[in-house]
Every structure is written in C-alpha cells, then in structure tokens.
Amino acid sequence: MKKLFVLICLLIFSCKTKQENIFEIIDFNGQKVEPFVEKMMKEGRISYFREDYSENKIYKSSIEIRGSILPVYLKFNVNKYDFNVLKHVEIYYNSDPFIGFSDSVSESKYIALKYHINENLGRIKDTVINKNENLFFEKRKDTVFHLEYDEKDFILKNKEPLIIRSKNYLQEIKKTKDTLIKNQTIKNLLKLSHPYVSWEVKRNNLVEFSLDGGYVVKLDKYEFRTIKSIRFKVFIKDEFNEILHVTTPITFELPIKIDDKIPAGVTFDDNRAKFKLNYDKNNYRYESLEKARLYRDQNSVKIESEILAIAFEDGTVLKK
User: Fold this and answer.
1) Residue pLDDT tens, the chain, 320 long
2) CB-based burial label for 211 (10 Å; 0-12, 13-18, 19+)
C-alpha cells in the first residue's frame, strides 16, 4: 500500500512537471537551438507539433490557468539570420499558429492568463520585453503582443504572438547582414542556368543570331536585397575549351525582381536573358560570331554565361 502511494505521488509529480512555466524554459545564454529543443523535448516540456507555411517548426506546450490546461505553441528563431543560436522565441497562447484556431475560455481565465504573463515577463534576463500591463489592451506600433477576448463566444484570440528576443537582437541581425553584404560574391549569389545560342540564315547575307543567356537563379538564401538587373556576357567555345566568340557585356533588366521572398533555386521563365541580333555575315565586326556559326555546323560547341555585375534596388552594385 505504501509503495502504491509513493507510485501515485510520483505520477502526479511527473505530470505536474510537464506543465512548465514557459518563461522558465527560455534562455538566451548563447545556447544552440537544436540541443536546446532536444533537451526540452526529452524532458517532456515541449513536443513537436508541425511546420508552418514557411517551414518553421512549431512546438507545443501548455500552462495551467485556474485548473484548466491551455495549449501553448512556440517557434524558435523564425528569422533566417538567427542561424543556430537561440535569439528569438514566438509564443502563441491558446491558438495554433498554423491554422489559427482558438479554444473557448472563460473571461476569468483570460484575466488570469493576462496576469500570468505580466508576472513572468520579467523572469527572462536580457530581453526586449518589459513588464507593462497596458501591453495587452492597446494596439500600438511599439507593441509586440496583443490578446483579444471575444465576450460573446468566450474565445481567446492570440492575434499576434508574444515575441521575446535577446537584448541586442536587432543590432545582432544588422551586424550579420552587414557581414553578408561585405563578403558577398557574384558566384555565391547568382548563376545563369542552361544558356543556349542558335543561328538562322534569313536571306542573302543576313543571319539572325538568337542568344539565351539562361535562367537567372538565386543561390544564396540569406541575401535580403532585391536584385533588379544583371550584366553578363556569353562565351561560345569549341570542344577543346578554346573561345570562338565572346559577346559584348549585355544588361538584362529582370521582369520579375528577385527579392527576399523568393527562395533560393526558384526560376521564372520571364527571367531568361533572351536576345536576338541580325547581322551581315560579311561584316568584319561579326567575324568571330560567323566563324562560331560555321564551326557549329560541323562540330559541337559549349555555351557558358558569366555574370559581370548585379544591380540591387537599393542602388548598390556587386561587381566581379
């Protein structure tokens, strides 16, 4: 009987330990996200829920408010510039951030939750969150959290997450972005994929040269500046890698600008650098181009594109 009593006590205690104070979980002491999440899951403090539309992982926990358990959902480091050090946490109370449902909750529990949050905001050191009761009643530009209570349906709506960041978060992100700009290279950022050339003899000595520099492909997912145009040239080579013809530098304004929202590796048909040129095959200025055509009639050729410069919408230019 005594052993049974001890076992029941242990079970009760183990269940209670899973209702963790979310604010006691978060720690911005330079720890890595993955080991932190693994430790929290192993201890039963959080569990994996699903991914959102941006492929950010969502974890589930809970808090006890006046005898009821409210679900809590968390995201860690949703900013891609956070890398793997824990700097940013988003907390959704009673609302799934993936589909946005809310469970019914009484007004008294809503008030209890408000005070629970206020009482615990100061527990996390070195954060940008301050203890401010008005934070939950006003929709201001400087607020990062807003709870709305629908008295008619008794629904607690967590319209925006409670965002907790490390103290120097914005400065750290700016420093990271500045470093990315300083070290950025054309080879790391963009490429022209699948270039192609063709010739068509029209009439008399007129030849139409069609050039497709290839798809403009973004390679670096961390580049945040919007790319509006590129300058490139195309090499036509023989099978021994000898250059038959090199185009003059060509400027291509991207019909679809490549911004931070476009993932790396995504291509658009409109962003193919296509051009046509009509030339007289007896014109000495096009001698190398005409020789490349004649060579191609009998042999294989290789086409290579090289980006010389990238122009960003903010006025900056990246050159080779």
Assistant:
1) 444 333 333 333 333 334 456 666 677 777 888 888 998 899 888 999 988 877 788 898 887 766 667 778 888 888 788 778 888 888 877 666 655 545 555 566 666 666 666 666 555 554 544 333 333 333 333 333 444 444 444 444 445 677 777 777 778 888 889 999 999 999 999 999 999 999 999 988 999 999 999 999 999 989 999 999 999 999 999 999 999 999 999 999 999 999 988 889 999 999 999 999 999 999 999 999 999 999 999 999 999 999 999 999 999 999 98
2) buried
Q: Output the pTM of the full model.
A: 0.69
Percentage helix, strand, coil for the chain under 3-state DSSP, each rounded to 5: 30, 40, 35
Strand partners, 210: 198, 276
In the chain, the number of structural domains is: 2
The residue among 147, 173, 199 that closes a domain is 173
8 is a domain residue: no
Whose tokens are 């191609």? That residue is 296
The 3-state DSSP class for residue 127 equals strand
Give the E-state strand segments of 161-226 in sequence order.
162-165, 190-193, 196-201, 206-218
Residue ending a domain, choose from 173, 201, 235: 173
- Whether the Cβ atoms of residue 225 and residue 189 lie closer than 8 Å to each other: no
Domain range spanning residue 122? 15-173
Per the CB < 8 A criterion, the answer to whether 139 and 160 are in contact is no
Instruction: For residue 234, tell me if it sits in a domain.
Output: yes
Cβ atoms of 273 and 267 within 8 Å: the answer is no
Contacts of 100 (CB under 8 A, 6+ apart): none
Cβ atoms of 219 and 188 within 8 Å: the answer is: yes
Q: At 253, which amino acid appears?
A: E
